[in-house]
């Protein structure tokens, strides 16, 4: 996933507001008339680049702020700014299940994040879906076996995981027989 910040030179300063999700790869791209002698980008976290187009891989919220493009045309200087907000993904995202279980038991799934305000969306075998953080399937049967997919979303930024589940069928009840009653000494 590549997201672009386009800085387009106009006759006045142009601030572009862009919002991205953590881990997106950002591309800073400039459109500059003529051939400047020097070109430079400066931004949050001591970011610098002399390339007309540059990439920032694996963005993080600390990269939020203003990215300033400066083009030197000898004694003339043109600048422009792109403002960027990098929103965090749900932090410390974990998933769990009580699988494997036997049929007729309750299957439990859970997803957790240390971030507040996270929403969850589950899907799985046999058209299963839920928006609960920790859904349960009572009286689960082997048809409930398979991969369950969960998406955790915080401020429109999502992270996914897969939870494999096994529900084992209960074997038929064993039949027992005996040649009882027997006399002492008989098998």
Q: Would you mind describing this structure in some detail?
A:
The strands form five sheets. This protein has a five-stranded mixed sheet, with no helix packed on it. A four-stranded antiparallel sheet has the order 13-12-15-16, with no helix packed on it. Strands 1-3-6 form a three-stranded mixed sheet, with no helix packed on it. The termini are far apart. By secondary structure, it is mainly beta.
Shape: rod-shaped
Oligomer: single chain
Bin the strand percentage. Answer: over 45%
Q: Please state the structural category.
A: mainly beta
Q: What is the average of the pLDDT values?
A: 85
**Order of SSEs:** EEEEEEEEEEEEEEEEE
Report the radius of gyration as a whole number of Å.
Answer: 30 Å
Q: Number of helical runs?
A: 0
Low-confidence stretches: 1-17
What is the count of β-strands? 17
- Biggest sheet descriptor: 5 strands, mixed
Q: How far apart are the termini?
A: 76 Å
Largest sheet, order of strands side by side?
2-8-7-4-5
Q: Give the % helix.
A: under 10%
């Amino acid at each position: 996933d590549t997201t672009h910040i386009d800085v387009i030179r106009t006759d006045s300063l142009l601030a572009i507001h862009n919002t991205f999700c953590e881990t997106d790869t950002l591309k800073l791209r400039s459109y500059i008339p003529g051939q400047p002698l020097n070109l430079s980008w400066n931004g949050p976290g001591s970011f610098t680049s002399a390339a007309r187009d540059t990439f920032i891989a694996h963005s993080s919220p600390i990269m939020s702020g203003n990215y300033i493009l400066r083009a030197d045309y000898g004694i003339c200087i043109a600048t422009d700014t792109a403002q960027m907000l990098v929103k965090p993904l749900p932090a410390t995202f974990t998933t769990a299940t009580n699988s494997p279980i036997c049929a007729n038991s309750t299957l439990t799934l859970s997803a957790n994040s240390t971030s507040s305000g996270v929403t969850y969306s589950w899907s799985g075998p046999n058209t299963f879906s839920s928006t609960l953080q920790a859904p349960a399937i009572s009286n689960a049967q082997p048809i409930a076996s398979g991969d369950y997919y969960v998406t955790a979303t915080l401020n429109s930024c999502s992270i996914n995981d897969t939870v494999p589940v096994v529900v084992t069928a209960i074997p038929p009840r064993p039949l027992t027989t005996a040649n009882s009653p027997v006399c002492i000494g008989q098998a």
